[in-house]
Write a structure and sequence with these properties.
Number of helices: 3
Strand content: 25-35%
Distance between the termini: 29 Å
Largest sheet: 3 strands, mixed
Number of strands: 3
Strand order of the largest sheet: 2-1-3
Structural class: alpha+beta
Length: 59
């Protein structure tokens, strides 16, 4: 959190988009830090994926 406060978010979080819904799958600690810092936006990489990829990440 201190690093993000001082230099900003260097590595965006990863998000899956499945049928118009978004699921975070990498970067939960970075997300939490940004949320606690009160940031209104967080850089992310969005990847469209079918349900089968989402299921693989949830397994």
């Amino acid at each position: 959190m201190e690093s993000i406060r001082e230099v900003g978010l260097k590595e965006p979080i990863d998000v899956l988009e499945v049928d118009g819904k978004y699921y975070g799958f990498s970067g939960c600690h970075r997300y939490e830090a940004c949320d606690r810092l009160g940031l209104e936006t967080i850089r992310c990489k969005v990847r469209r994926a079918p349900h089968s990829v989402l299921q693989m990440h949830l397994a």
